[in-house]
Amino acid sequence: MPHVYMISDHHFGHKNIIDFESRPFGDVGEMTESMIDKWNAVVGKEDSVFHLGDFSFLNMEKTSAIMARLNGYKTLIMGNHDRGRSKRWWLEAGFDEVSEHPIVYGGFFFLSHEPMYMNKHMPYVNIHGHIHGQKYEGNQYVNVSVEHWDYTPVLFEDIKKLVVPSEEQ
Predict the structure, then answer these.
(1) Which of 47, 69, 70, 146 could form a disulfide with 151 if both were Cys (CB 3.0 to 4.6 A apart)?
(2) How far is CA 156 from CA 94, 142, 164, in A?
(3) Runs of H (alpha helix) within the chain
């Protein structure tokens, strides 16, 4: 049975992110290869991945080459660094679907790049990226930036276990 994964903020090709976020890589090439390996170690060909933005700083040829190596059906929810390129560009680069806006998944989860305002009385959960190593308090937010998950896509079922009491699942 196919699985669903979520991840954000790979920043492929962004040399300075290694220093900005204290990433454990010697250079961009090592970062790229490690992140591709970690993706494919958990994501199978039949699985789906929601990438919650800031995927690549590289040109079309290099971005497409990375996309071709990544397993799964890939949906991009565009992040602030992705918006300089069109939806069509990202589709041509290899994403199967692209959204310029947050989407509702499973009727209960808001998938967005930036964290969304969530009133504590709202019965929803915001799965997001953008803030890298930082984390919002409370069980209404799950940050899937690569820094929190050892650069590995997170199984949606594991995210649900973090935020939905077991009797409601």
Answers:
(1) 146
(2) 22, 11, 12
(3) 17-20, 28-42, 60-69, 87-93, 156-163
Q: Which long-range CB contacts under 8 A does 21-24 form with residues at least 24 apart? A: 21/132, 21/133, 21/147, 22/133, 23/147
Q: What percent of the chain has pLDDT over 70?
A: 97
Answer left, alpha or beta for residue 73, where phi above 0 means left and psi between -120 and 50 means alpha: beta
Q: Are 153 and 42 in contact (CB under 8 A)?
A: yes
Length of the chain: 169
Which domains, and CATH codes, for the chain?
4-168 (3.60.21.10)
d(CA 54, CA 56): 6
User: 3-state class of 30 per DSSP?
Assistant: helix
For 82-135, the pLDDT digits (tens) are 999 999 999 999 999 999 999 999 989 999 999 998 887 888 999 999 998 887
